[in-house]
Amino acid sequence: YVVIASEYAPDGSLQGWLNRHGGQAPSIEAAVEMTRGILAGLEHLHQRRIIHRDLKPDNILLQGETPRLADFGISRVVKSTSLSANLAGTPAYMAPEAFQKRRNEQTDLWSVGVILYQMLSGRLPFEGDDLPTACVAVRDEEPAPLPAAVPVWLQQIVTRALLKDPGQRYQSATEMRRDLAEAKLRQERQEAERLREEEERRRREQEAQLQAERERLLRENAELRRLAEKQRQSDAAKQTVKIPLPPTVPAPQPQPDRRARIFVIVAALMLTAGLAFWLAPKLFSDRPGVKPEQVEVLRYALELKGWKDRVTTFEPVQGRQFRLHFIPRERGFLYLLSPDEQQVLRTFLTAQQIEAGADFVFPGGGQWIELPATTGQVRITAIFSEQPVRQSPFCPAMPDRR
């Protein structure tokens, strides 16, 4: 008995593998690896001058993902002549010269090109229901383009494997296998370069975003500083009270020294306060038996901005703002008046009831009096009364409380 013992391939044929994946390889990488395995088997055969002649998915068995060439029923040893005695093989996988009964290594490589095309596209490059139709298609037609997802380098390998002229086709399985390996290596390098460029692009985008965020924060900080400065200037302006000039302004004269102007202002205030002390008992003489010159009714003081102590003896100080302090000995009403355009005491500055010993500040609210540069002097009259003043010949407009 003659016995043939062969390796067991438990995972079916390549055709079954294609059927399980919808008629094509599950990925381009899987198709390339499967083709390299088939070419390794052909390389072993061709080195021994054996051509398979009927290479197709049904005759390729699988051990896992490793292909094994099988069914050598019509295989032949390559002789000095390339003619075959009969026409054998599967038409869809036969090379143009195989239909003329000529076979060589390029015939097998044509079949590998058909199988690779089928794994990449899910269809055969040449269709034919019978032998004559298949022969015409293989001899005269060009295969349809592969899907756009197939890399250009792989399309070029398939195109070369399916050239009509055997002399322009791959000359050996080793050459085609080397092209696939080198092309795969180029693809891996290109993919690594693409990933590197993608990473670099993402890095640049992140840096641009961070720069834009830094610039936005700088703009916001600048705007906040601008608003804070504006608020500070507004608060500083609110702390200053400016007394308006009378409508009638004397003709321009040579400006006196600022120290002299302040001295005149302070002297006018002291004179006005003394006049108020002298007039108050005569206007409101409803307390019999009390002599005005014998009673200290009201104390006052001048506070210069930036000075440590208040003063009652005024000295000219250049460039200072000031405010007034009034401290009564008993509870009463304080009226501060300023002359109008006709120099009549009609304009109320304040009408305030003050408790005994309290410190009444004018102007209040942390504000200060600032005199315009052209003002020679400002006259303020202070009247202090135990009872509220309703009418006075000096102040007929007093009820307006302006």
How are the elements arranged and paired?
Elements: H1 14-20, H2 28-47, E1 50-51, E2 60-63, E3 66-69, E4 76-77, H3 105-121, H4 131-140, H5 152-161, H6 173-238, E5 240-242, H7 258-283, E6 298-304, E7 322-328, E8 332-339, E9 345-354, E10 360-362, E11 368-370, E12 381-385
Parallel strand pairs: 5-11
Antiparallel strand pairs: 1-4, 2-3, 6-7, 7-10, 8-9, 8-12
Q: How would you describe this protein?
A:
- The protein is α+β, with helices and mostly antiparallel strands.
- It has seven helices and twelve strands.
- The protein has helices spanning about 15-20, 30-45, 105-120, 130-140, 150-160, 175-240, 260-285, and strands spanning about 50, 60-65, 65-70, 75, 240, 300-305, 320-330, 330-340, 345-355, 360, 370, 380-385.
- The strands form five sheets. A three-stranded antiparallel sheet has the order 6-7-10, with no helix packed on it.
- β2 and β3 (about 65-70) form a beta hairpin.
- Residues about 80-85 and about 395-400 have low confidence and may be disordered.
